[in-house]
Amino acid sequence: MKLIFEQSVRGRQGFKLPDSDVPVTAVIAGKYLRQAELLLPEVSELDVVRHFTRLSRLNFSLDANFYPLGSCTMKYNPKFTEKAAAMPGFADLHPLLPQLKGGERYVQGALEVLYDTERWLSEITGMKAFTLQPLAGAHGELTGIMLMAAYHKARGNKKKHIIVPDSAHGTNPASAAVAGYQIISVASDKKGGIDIEKLKAVLTVETAGLMMTCPDTHGVFNSSIGEISRLVHAVDGLMYYDGANLNATLGRCRPGDVGFDLVHLNLHKTFGTPHGGGGPGAGPVGVMGKLEKFLPVSRVVKRPDGLFYLDYGHPDSIGYIASFYGNFAIILRAYAYMLLLGGDGLKETSDHAVLNANYLMHRLKNNYPVAFDRICMHECLFSATKHAARGVHAIDIAKFLIDQGIHPPTVYFPLTVKEAIMVEPTETESRETLDFFVDAMIRADALARTDPAAFHDFPRTMPISRPDETRAAREMNVNFFASRA
Amino acid sequence: MKLIFEQSVRGRQGFKLPDSDVPVTAVIAGKYLRQAELLLPEVSELDVVRHFTRLSRLNFSLDANFYPLGSCTMKYNPKFTEKAAAMPGFADLHPLLPQLKGGERYVQGALEVLYDTERWLSEITGMKAFTLQPLAGAHGELTGIMLMAAYHKARGNKKKHIIVPDSAHGTNPASAAVAGYQIISVASDKKGGIDIEKLKAVLTVETAGLMMTCPDTHGVFNSSIGEISRLVHAVDGLMYYDGANLNATLGRCRPGDVGFDLVHLNLHKTFGTPHGGGGPGAGPVGVMGKLEKFLPVSRVVKRPDGLFYLDYGHPDSIGYIASFYGNFAIILRAYAYMLLLGGDGLKETSDHAVLNANYLMHRLKNNYPVAFDRICMHECLFSATKHAARGVHAIDIAKFLIDQGIHPPTVYFPLTVKEAIMVEPTETESRETLDFFVDAMIRADALARTDPAAFHDFPRTMPISRPDETRAAREMNVNFFASRA
Amino acid sequence: MNPYIANTEQDVQTMLGVIGVDSIDALFADIRPEHAPRSFDLPAGLSEFEVIERLRRLASKNTGALIPFIGGGYYDHYVPAACGAIMSRGEFYTAYTPYQPECSQGTLQALFEYQSGICALTGMDVANASLYDGGTALYEAMMMALRVTGRKKIVMDGGVSPIYRKLIRSYTHNLHIEFIETPVAHGQTDRACVSALMDKDVAAVIIQNPNFFGVIDDHADIVAQAHASGALVIASVYPVALGLLKTPAEMGVDIVTGEGQSLGLPLNFGGPYLGFMAVRRALIRQMPGRIVGETVDAQGRRCFVNTLQAREQHIRREKATSNICTNAALCAVQASVFMALMGRQGFRQLAQLNFDKAEYARRVLGNIPGVEVKRSSPTFNEFTVYLPRDAADVVEEMILRGFAAGFPLGRYYEGMNNYLLVAVTEKRTKSEIEAYAAALAEVVA
Amino acid sequence: MNPYIANTEQDVQTMLGVIGVDSIDALFADIRPEHAPRSFDLPAGLSEFEVIERLRRLASKNTGALIPFIGGGYYDHYVPAACGAIMSRGEFYTAYTPYQPECSQGTLQALFEYQSGICALTGMDVANASLYDGGTALYEAMMMALRVTGRKKIVMDGGVSPIYRKLIRSYTHNLHIEFIETPVAHGQTDRACVSALMDKDVAAVIIQNPNFFGVIDDHADIVAQAHASGALVIASVYPVALGLLKTPAEMGVDIVTGEGQSLGLPLNFGGPYLGFMAVRRALIRQMPGRIVGETVDAQGRRCFVNTLQAREQHIRREKATSNICTNAALCAVQASVFMALMGRQGFRQLAQLNFDKAEYARRVLGNIPGVEVKRSSPTFNEFTVYLPRDAADVVEEMILRGFAAGFPLGRYYEGMNNYLLVAVTEKRTKSEIEAYAAALAEVVA
Ligand SMILES: Cc1ncc(COP(=O)(O)O)c(C=O)c1O
Ligand SMILES: Cc1ncc(COP(=O)(O)O)c(C=O)c1O
A31 exposed, middle or buried (CB, 10 Å; 0-12, 13-18, 19+)? Predict the structure, then answer.
């Protein structure tokens, strides 16, 4: 499809702005003015709408496709939460209003949303308190590591490194690193869990903490969590819970009850807010009592008279970590989601997420060896090494699925498993959809036996197939103007 | 695609209703209860959303495709009018509110919308007054014919028939017929207009009126309109203006100034409201002074103090013709559209609608003979008789265009022209889009010369091609249950 | 500036060049000077922002935040967000009538499903793809009955919505049809009266269930009688009630129509709404409006098309079964979404909630001294109360207390000035009902 | 009941059978009894209708209908309806990160266009596909400068948003970075001070244009100086202003970031917003965040992919240029729609309207006795006024008169208690401005 810039016609205009109703009282001095022409596209509103409508139709999406992306929790995004987020009383609210004297009176509804969400997330995770400010999971991790640093500093601890299992998501080591820690990676054992002996080997007084995803990215709930946390706490390390996989254990296990000191959650995973083609999300962070005083400001407080306000006065706080109160419109959707489901509905969520994953695992394990042959949690992990031996790699199976209208599972993650195919069906998909996926996977397996070469030009039904990624990286055409200059 | 009924799974539920908060105080006696199970589909909300999202993707639409449908005015539907219509202050308003004592105070905004729209449509058409109640163009026609009947009755006229040109839309004779009139069809002359001699031949004292589309469905503005209206008025007939083609003459000619006594407009054509896959629309009717007292009740009135109310007290009124005040949410969109464009913007609309049509006509007339070789108005009319001689009919060209992503023009209408291809580009399409269409049409013409047989299995890119319409009519499978019983 | 026009000055010049004229004005040569507008005095255009602001101001003049207990055939039901989300897809709302099936399967299949849903609700064999609204659908049904029977007399139950009755009368003013309206007995159809009127001239008996007073009835006996004398029976029904109530098919009704607003459409101050119609299979060729049928394409793939088009105006012109062209297709698709969301169990539950809440309200209001609630005839989610004074005045006072308290029947029924029609949907909470009762008690005290 | 779960009781039994366990509980065997929640005390679930009603009530507690003259980097611009219409397409908002290019070309091309639009606005060579928001984007820019230069000192203009400065400080608490904040001179960057600080340790000078006081500046001289000592210059910019103002590229800036909220995003009480970043081409491999690049597919068709992924955490883990994963993709697409709608002329016109309205307000407020408007430094659509008493108190009184009168600078700048920061966008009408002035005159009188 043509770029919108390529559709530009000199002099065309797509939008009608108000005429000015004020006299011109000043001009900007020439030296402050831009010299370069502002080469935005010149198109009509119809051009814009048609262009983006057509573009959108080139996407797979949850609204049209099954998306069994492991670790991503691509569950249905309830439509009513979009309606809630569009209410002008929320959408038009300026974030500085509550910082005006008397201004918090005009944002009571919004503050109540924040306050309740914090309380409920605390109850869900067994944490003492929450901050909703982090703008995504990785941002939550960074915030969490900063909280850990503040804790250690206050305790006079000299900590240097953070331990991260090799199965961890890339954001874990990256977040710890940007916060100034060294990373020590610890290998998994044969059951997919952290190898406790190896963990012991790296734990020292310089260990600031351990970041764990629980259940981990192998889809396994680590039954040794109690022991692990004892070991980490023994060196005054902190247990960090990456909550990306919370969808497996709602109402079944709370990180706060099993030894974790702080958590981040991904509202765009467990709490059904949309992924938006890569964002925005929200990554609230919860902490146990010993970390509470370090939480970022502002904090939402409810006065005895029921009025809410923002409290900035916490001397031990790590300070501002976001400009305001988090991705409010995302938090609002998650709040609406929790209101609708209630405690029971949330627990059911995990029940069926886990049921669906185990069902898929059992239906497929004869065709695709499972990485860890045991009950899985909300996602299951296959390996396509056998297929790869015939020249059909995980990515080829992924591309085969695209032609079936199915978004591929996560492939090549976690890094611990060769030719990983990581499948997370979520609780919102029906058995018919799971069976449709199973059938497609079984057909792929059969085809891999009979005609492995066929895979190389999948997908065949899409407008493009197998882009040349090397060329992209070499040419670095990332800007319409530069590439045409 | 599977029907939603075919996706049904016993016991599945897609929506959460509130629990009852009242005690059960009564039961309905068995004899009043339904016996048959209510076999609505049992699906999850995700199933519903995914099903309808996928269904929608099987449609062409203005938002994604050029739609040069003659007589249909498929212009861009501005997005902001959708936003306006969704405002709760309008969308949640109960229509009986203004009929309560003191209730009109709660609907002043809505009444103002109606009042202003009536006034502006009057000014646009040169009519004295308008009713916004008719729910579509054909409903407007029926209302108009009823007004004519009321007029003649009041005058003691004995009228029996209505004259309709052979180029008229099918709704014209149909509306006149259901209102109780006989239809006399009058042929067009060689220039596409009404043949005045033939008109004279059928005009009698029993002629209730003449229904004219202006410009007519040949895309021609009838310069003899003055003479025609004199002839009709001479027998105390009324001149009815079918406003489906008003998009050609905004600010250029008002029916009220050239002899018409009453008009209907299609807000879903000229005023940019969406077609909705076949409806809903709105077909307001305007009348000159002599017909005003017959207009349907209620009528919107502005009191001297600026308050609006609904007036039901018109003894000569034809009465209720709709349950309420018309398709309010459609009228509201048209109102928003007029507010944005203003008088100048409306006039520009017609200027460019006509320019675009003439441009297309000139670019294509060497390949497709024009039915009437003259300046056209907002649409132009080709004939594919030459192509048909080679076995390529208008419908085949239509199907060819579908493969180009272009919605076919109107074909086989008007009935006066063999193998008619009626093209109405509207003012909202860019020259690039027109050229894209021209190129496709020229390619079709070339292919018709070189390989006419190729046309028979167009379209090739769609999920289906050339449905068996005869079988549909024979089998009459119009209900999932019946066809599976 | 018209932002919806794409042509630039340069485009205009190029195009005029291709056409071979000097100016756009030249294209309007057929419109002679004497045809020029005598006036075209319209406000100057505004920007999108200004229009939205203006409409927001107008909209805010409407919301009185009245708690609604008003129905009269149009109900304050909750519209699931998914309905709106699907309807706002451009592929549905900016499409044209599906005359080209290859590029319209989305709308066509959705309408086929809608027709099937209406058949499921009503129990009838076939439904059309929509008419304008409930009132005009009833008019079309009557016209159809006249055509089918070749007779000229219509018997109409006084329990049929007075709004519908009024508009049917307007439409048939010139058609030399004899209308007889029968009174209501204890809120239900007056059997004796209808029976006395049945003769070989009656084309149809028109009834409504629940009727305008909210009263439910089993019209099977009337159907039997009508059929015996060769007349058809037309029933106008309220679809939500069909979640619980005996279907018109079970009563033997020939033509069913109704207002589909309660199937997921906002109240919209009167429209757009959705007229539905379902009939016995034998009557299909006389049915007005579009009908979508299943078929296969050239390669044998299942697909859907507009069918039996020979009934319609674009083919049959003055001999068509109706003049309808544009209908309420998008509303039908929305209703289809609604029916699928509710499903078998949800739809029933919805009906039950409406019934239970209304019954509770009926009991609570009946306890107010001076307010009389007739309990003889069963009702669904709407009922009448007798007040100690003019209901219109009571309603006026209730408005000041924040309630749209109902519809005063005196407006349409002579001698019923003290009667108020009260509707209670699933959206009304117990506490709203009780607050309403408390306010009413004060007002009538 | 959880309406988003599709499994029926029957499904559950079938699936458990396939798995070979008795109950769902059995699947949770790894979670031992000692791991069970000590509490899980959450409210009972509600229906969709009840949730919407509750949120409507909460939302209505917010709308004070205050006329906004408040900015501070976040502005009340009009969001064209087409932006929302496109964003509400499920294909955009319910898609995942475009890791699979074949089924993500829509998002990928839209992001490529977004990057191009940001380059057009800023004049820079390359832009990434979004960061969280303007504040974190500036933090990322600073981290990038530290990496690129290998130095540890940051000079930050006091005109940079105090909110941004605060959060950058939090993030770098443990990173042993030396921060020097320079004061503002006559509202602009203090040249002498910056110049005195420049040395071989400075990694970057961070400036903002227009700065927090709304003042515009030409930082070309500072850039020259910084470059001379091997430092980078980072500019945080306000995109609407770039419709008129000298671009950061024209000043020679190395890294540009900014808050994209004003590009068609609602204020949303603080988010989601859009952080943008654009750099010189030479810096591309050090840039954080996703980058979409053009390429061709196996058949030579143009297409788009995430490129240079070796910078990112999912490949490079602790050595990545940033930890960012989920970003603000949908907001970037929305900004892209906004830029296309405005276009070359519209965007300029939008900037001009903002400037003209603010200038008018500045003049009108300057006429109020006791209110002082500094006219020495040019401003864009926001400016400071000096009030005869504490601006926080004045604002409180203005709220009661229906205005969000601006942001009292005392909150973030010591000694500036009497200063008020006033923003005026294209949405403010002349009469609103005058009403504001009249109210302010009363309050300060
Ligand atoms: C296990 C895990 N941790 C962390 C993240 C990072 O979260 P975000 O993308 O919201 O920054 C992800 C996201 O995919 C994840 O799967
Ligand atoms: C010339 C003409 N007249 C009347 C009509 C009927 O209008 P509606 O479809 O709104 O009933 C149409 C619609 O296509 C038309 O083109």
Answer: exposed
Mean pLDDT over B474-484 rounds to 88
C-alpha A141 – ligand 1 centre gap (Å): 9
Cβ contact (<8 Å) for B79 and D90? no
* C363 at D interface, C-beta within 8 A: no
Query: By the 8 A CB rule, do B80 and C52 touch?
Result: yes
Interface pTM (ipTM) of the complex? Answer: 0.97
Q: Out of D6, D46, D82, name the one closest to residue B12 (CB).
A: D6
A touches which chains (3+ CB pairs under 8 A)?
B, C, D
Segments of chain C scoring below 70 in pLDDT: 63-64
Q: Tokens 């400065």 correspond to what residue?
A: D165
Pairwise CA distance, residues C434 & B299, whole Å: 37
| pLDDT average, residue stretch D280-305 | 96
Tokens encoding C335: 């209703």
Query: CA dist B437 to B64, B404, B422, D393, Å?
Result: 14, 9, 13, 64
Chain D residues within 8 A of A464 when measuring between CB atoms: 101-102, 105, 297, 299, 301, 303
Q: Is A284 in the pocket of ligand 1 (CB under 6 A)?
A: no
Tokens of D362: 């500045």
Ligand lying closest to the C-alpha of residue C327: 2
Report residue A458: phi and psi, to 5°.
-75, 145
Please, which pLDDT band fits residue B332 given cuts at 50, 70 and 90? very high
D325 contacts in chain A (CB < 8 Å): 136-138, 169-171
User: Quick one: tokens of D285?
Assistant: 């491999």
Task: State yes or no: pLDDT of A290 exceeds 80.
Answer: yes
Residue B191's pLDDT is 83
* Rounded-to-integer distance, Cα B255 and Cα C77, Å: 43
Measured CA angle at C50 (ends C48, C56), to 5 deg = 100
| Mean pLDDT, range B335-343, rounded to an integer | 98
Question: Rounded CA gap, D224 and D205, in Å?
Answer: 11
Q: Which of D49, D80, D90 sits opposite C48 (nearest CB)?
A: D80
Summary mean pLDDT of chain B: 96
Ligand that comes closest to the CA of residue B71 = 2
Take residue B318 and report the two structure tokens written for it. Answer: 């034809």
Q: Using a CB-CB distance cutoff of 8 angstroms, which residues of chain A are in contact with residue B57?
A: 57, 64
Cβ-defined contact of C10 to A11 (cutoff 8 Å): yes
Q: What values do phi and psi take at B182, rounded to 5?
A: -80, 155
Closest CB from B34, B84, B110 relative to C245 = B34
Where b means 16+ CB within 10 Å and e means fewer, D16-34 reads beebebeebeebbebbeee
- Report, as an integer, the average pLDDT of D139-168: 96
What are the DSSP calls for B275-293, one per residue? -TTT------EEE-HHHHT
Q: Is the CB of B72 under 6 A from ligand 2?
A: yes
Range in A58-62, B261-265, B296-300, D186-190 the model is least confident about: D186-190
Residue A485 has pLDDT above 60, yes or no: no
Cis peptide before B408 (omega within 30 of 0): no
pLDDT at A483: 64
CB–CB of A45 and C47 under 8 A?
no
**Chain C residues inside the 8 Å CB shell of D85:** 88, 90
Please give the distance, rounded to the nearest whole angstrom, from the Cα atom of residue D255 to the centre of ligand 1: 27
- Scan for tokens 């037309």, then name that residue: C234
Question: Is residue B171's pLDDT more than 80?
Answer: yes
The whole-number average pLDDT for the span D62-81 is 91
Nearest to A122 by CA among A260, A10, A233: A260
- Please state, in angstroms and as integers, the Cα–Cα distance from residue A31 to each residue in B398, D220, D347, D360, following that order: 58, 10, 20, 22
What mean pLDDT do residues A224-248 have?
96
| Among chain B residues, CA nearest to D53 | B18
